[in-house]
């Protein structure tokens, strides 16, 4: 019997999908977040995984890449999203997903995606088995790659970012996005409204983006409160004194009706006005 793992942080979605798939003859297991999904996959093999993008700890695309580059992607994955975009769909397919479906999911679309996903996965495995061994196929490519000089990498510890041109573009892009949002949030007193205006993004999309990058704004605010300097004992910080402004003299000889030049012209440029 085909066994399917459903990974979604919404209990209602897990229950509905489980009921549909069980009635359709599948065996079903569920996981509420990425950590549970990792544990489930480590314990047993699943014939297919239905993976949601937007989850609180690690987003589905990041988990898919983790499985792929960790050599653990030995099962087909169908990505699900209620707020997906063409970019998300393309990234999912590039990272090894067999399909991308949007919520709400119809019964027909769900069952069709699972059947086609299983067929597509088995065809990919068959083609991979018929290809020559990777060592022979990439021997010449490896020699040419060894002749290419390693690209530069720049560390920016103040922003928690390493700009490494040797890394895959999407991995580097995610690190830059994370550093960008965290840096701007720190400068804007952790205001999501100000961040949305600064970044030129809709607030709803911004919330999803920040969450998908693993940024916890509440934790950042709490950390800022903990590390803020405490006021001196017995009172609060003294208010800064108002700066003394230069006094501009006016007279009948130097007025709007009879201008003769600014009083400031009397002061040398290299002296401070007092």
TrEMBL record:
Location of 4-aspartylphosphate modifications: 52
Annotated Basic and acidic residues bias: 124-137
Keyword field: DNA-binding, Phosphoprotein, Transcription, Transcription regulation, Two-component regulatory system
SMART domains attached to this UniProt entry: REC
Bias (Polar residues) ranges: 256-274
Gene Ontology annotations of biological process type: regulation of DNA-templated transcription
Region (Disordered): 124-147, 221-274
Pfam families per UniProt: Response_reg
Keyword Transcription regulation on entry: yes
Domain Response regulatory: 3-118
Record carries keyword Phosphoprotein: yes
Molecular-function GO terms, alphabetical: phosphorelay response regulator activity; transcription cis-regulatory region binding
A Gene Ontology term for the protein's cellular component: cytosol
Listed name of the protein: Response regulator
């Amino acid at each position: 019997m085909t066994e399917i793992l459903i990974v979604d942080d919404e209990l209602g979605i897990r229950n509905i999908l489980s009921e549909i798939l069980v009635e359709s003859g599948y065996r079903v297991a569920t996981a509420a977040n990425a950590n549970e999904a990792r544990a489930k996959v480590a314990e047993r093999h699943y014939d297919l995984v239905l993976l949601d993008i937007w989850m609180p700890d690690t987003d589905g695309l990041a988990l898919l890449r983790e499985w792929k580059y960790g050599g653990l992607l030995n099962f087909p994955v169908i990505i699900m999203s209620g707020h997906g975009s063409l970019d998300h769909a393309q990234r999912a397919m590039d990272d090894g997903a067999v399909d991308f479906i949007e919520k709400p999911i119809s019964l027909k679309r769900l069952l069709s995606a699972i059947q086609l996903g299983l067929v597509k996965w088995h065809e990919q495995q068959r083609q991979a088995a018929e290809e020559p061994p990777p060592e022979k196929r990439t021997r010449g490519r490896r020699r040419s790659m060894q002749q290419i000089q390693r690209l530069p990498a720049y560390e920016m510890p103040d922003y928690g970012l390493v700009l490494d041109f040797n890394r895959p573009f999407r991995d580097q892009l995610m690190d830059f996005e994370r550093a960008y949002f965290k840096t701007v949030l720190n400068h804007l007193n952790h205001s999501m409204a100000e961040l949305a205006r600064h970044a030129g993004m809709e607030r709803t999309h911004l919330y999803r983006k920040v969450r998908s990058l693993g940024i916890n704004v509440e934790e950042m605010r709490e950390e800022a409160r903990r590390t803020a300097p405490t006021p001196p004992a017995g009172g609060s910080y003294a208010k800064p004194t108002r700066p003394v402004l230069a006094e501009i003299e006016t007279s009948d000889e130097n007025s709007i009706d009879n201008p003769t030049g600014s009083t400031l012209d009397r002061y040398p440029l290299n002296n401070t006005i007092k």
